[in-house]
Amino acid sequence: NRGPGRMPLDWTTRLKLALDSAKGLSFVHRGCNSKLFHGNLTASNILIDRAGNACLSDLSISQFVTFSSTTMNYSSANYRAPEQVQGGKRPSQRTDVYSFGIILLEILTGKSPSEGNFSLPKWVQSVVKEEWTSEVFDLELLRYKDMEGEMVALLQIALQCLSELPHQRPKMSQVVKMILDIRGTNDEEATCSSLQNDNSSDSSRSISGETGTTTTATY
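The structure assignment produced for this chain is given below.
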């Protein structure tokens, strides 16, 4: 949504991508007796297929090897939770939730966490709620006046994910439900499908890029 030749995303598309990504991360967290985490969640690791569905990629192997903060690249550093930055804690499901909160801010603000010399979460948190529409939301979204309530609701979810205290962050299954509740979506059918996938040995999804190559997004 940024740079030359960009194609601004409308609000409905952004909300769908947020929901798809939340479902993917929730799926990861339910794997291996609920012990799996992504560990490297960034906007660049969320791929969009030709049907407009968001898929997670680049699942970190840090959960299977000895963790070292020096292996974290600069891009990932902008998505790290406070306990990782200040205390050198290992990635976890709780840090995934924090990273997802950053991604929601990107969707809502159109800004990158690596943009400029400021903290995207702290900047958003410093703006009073009454000024969110004029100060925080991407200018491209201001045309959707009738959707402001949904934007505010998604921002409130993002702020919950960005809690300084890990135990105060919601689980991704709760985040999925909160996003669905924004439009009062009945997702019973999708939930049943997701549970069936949980019991399936095939937990990966392939997407074809513009180059014709295939990338496997592990859910």
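Interim note for the steering committee: Residues 190-219 have pLDDT under 50 and may be disordered. The chain has one domain: 11-194+202-218.
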